[in-house]
Amino acid sequence: MRLKSLLFVIIISVLMIKTTLVASSADLDIAINNGRVIDPESQFDGIAHVGIKNGRIVSLSNQPLDANVVVDATAQVVAPGFIDIHTHTPTPFATERAVLDGITTQLDTEAGAYPVSAYGELIEAKPRIHFGASVGHYATRLKVIDGLDQPYFFHRGKSITMDARAWEQIATPEQIKEIEQLLEAGLKEGGIGIGVLLDYMTDAISKPELEMIFRLAARYDAPVFTHVRRGLPGDPAGLEEILDLAVKTQTPVFICHITHNAMGGITEWLAKIDEARSQGARVATETLSYLAGGTSISADVFRKRDWRSIFDIDYSDVQWVATGEWLTEQRWNYYSENQPGGSVNHHYVKEAWLQTALQWPDMMISTDALPAFSEQQLTNPNIAGTYSRVLGRYVREQGILSLSDALARMSLKQAQWLESIAPEFAQKGRVQVGKDADLVIFDPNTVAANAEYGAPYLPPTGIHWVLVNGQIVVRQGNLVPEVFPGNRLGVSRARD
Fold first, then answer.
1. What is the spatial distance between Cα 259 and Cα 440, in angstroms, rounded to a whole number?
2. d(CA 297, CA 333)
3. Is the pLDDT score of 389 beyond 80?
4. What is the DSSP string of 206-231?
5. Is there a contact between 262 and 268 (Cβ–Cβ < 8 Å)?
6. What are residue 316's DSSP bridge partners?
7. Contact present, 430 and 39 (Cβ < 8 Å)
8. What would the CATH number be for the domain defined by 2-80+432-479?
9. Strand (E) positions, 54-193?
10. Torsion over CA of 253, 258, 260 and 262, rounded to 10 degrees?
11. How far apart are alpha carbons 219 and 209 in whole angstroms?
């Protein structure tokens, strides 16, 4: 078996160097020469020259190529563009920060949107990168129970209404049916899956409603993306609830930011996922590279629980996101009463938990970035430094991951998990002939995140070039003005 795998890698590597789809290099739009090409799927890792035409990789050569534009990637890595499978910030400012960190695709899957077409309205006309969303279960609840239209988490710069009845009230059978109809409409509209904020509706989502969601998702083979209910530190009950449904219904399930939920129980949680997968469940999960959690000060985890005991922190470990202010009990109470929709960063995640998560073979890495609108409005640093932080800290400095493994966790694994749902993802996450030219070029010896809490938008060091759809959007570390090659991504589903 190992021999077969080795032969496969060798064959693929040879094919990569020999294959071309154009008559001559003069036909190319862009050539990337002399770079260390890493394709995490084939495990190819070597010096090669990449030819691009009409948004696709059309040539991988052992000889330098000529083209209309030639990029010299000497001493740099050429890798698939990073796929952020979990974010919350479809704004022009945020996508600028994201692409400087090598992100070529951004998806809001945990919260999602309803209608799905409303997501990304701020960047629709000028998308620097690809974007898309799941169907937002919370948004359908707000519509059915409160009569509110809140299409996505931070619609038009305003945070969602956290004091609506939908966050607290158990739905009636009639309301569950209405919610189901809206969710189905969202799936038919192209939603990547269904996003379910269980931990924000701890008491509101009943067993019948949750089972309805899974039955509906199973009918469309659509994944359920969920922030599981959280109990005592490390308690896997919320995870087990979802895994049981995944096994019973054979619905694909994505567990959001597992490190932040499992905490000290991360090893047990991953073992439970492995067990569910052994029973045929299609379960995936992710971790973040920064060590704080970010959410609304009105979230259930704060309002209904002894959060200081759960997280083993105090008020002084919490920042008010908008200003970076470290809180006291008095200031916490003030913001809770006067700005209940505002966000906080609570610093509780341990480095050891993250290192454990990163080493799980199929772990993905995402940002879970909070909305970013301008330099003046602070948020967490996730949008600007997630992937460069992995490459600098956990690959080069600590050796937790190999470079190829890290790239797989930031691109390929997302693409592979999504491609059975949305076939266009089969074109992403690879550096192969015929695949989309969504690429990042970086210096492995210098790449590092500069964004931190209090200075969340500092661009990284060492990410020099980014291409989206075969167009250069970052040149020598700087944004290229007025280039917007991104596309809305979704799932084409047959209508009744």
1. 27
2. 10
3. yes
4. -HHHHHHHHHHHHHTTPPEEE-----
5. yes
6. none
7. yes
8. 2.30.40.10
9. 56-61, 69-72, 77-80, 82-84, 103-113, 130-136
10. 110
11. 16
User: Which tens digit of pLDDT belongs to each residue from 213-268?
Assistant: 999 999 999 999 999 998 777 899 999 999 999 999 999 999 999 999 999 999 99
Q: Say what the pLDDT of residue 17 is.
A: 45
- Which amino acid belongs to residue 249? T
**CA-based max dimension of the chain:** 70
Closest CA to 132 of 196, 86, 184: 86
**AA letter at 138:** Y
Q: What is the distance between the alpha carbons of residues 143 and 459, in angstroms, rounded to a whole number?
A: 38
What single string gives the DSSP state of each residue in 73-105? -TT-EEEEPEEE-S----SHHHHHHHHHTTEEE
Do residues 322 and 299 make contact, with C-beta atoms less than 8 angstroms apart? no
What is the token pair recorded at 156? 């038009």
251: DSSP letter? -
The full set of domain ranges for the chain reads 2-80+432-479, 82-291+349-427
Architecture field, domain 82-291+349-427: Alpha-Beta Barrel (3.20)
* pLDDT at site 363: 98
The answer to whether the CB of 263 falls within 8 A of the CB of 232 is no
Which tokens go with 118?
């409303």
The 3-state DSSP class for residue 438 equals coil
pTM of the entire structure? Answer: 0.94
Phi, psi of 21 (to 5 degrees): -115, 5
pLDDT band at 8 (very low <50, low <70, confident <90, very high): very low
End-to-end CA distance of the chain: 45
Among 482, 488, 487, which residue's Cα sits nearest to residue 96? 482
Can you tell me the distance from the alpha carbon of 79 to that of 495, in angstroms, rounded to the nearest whole number? 37
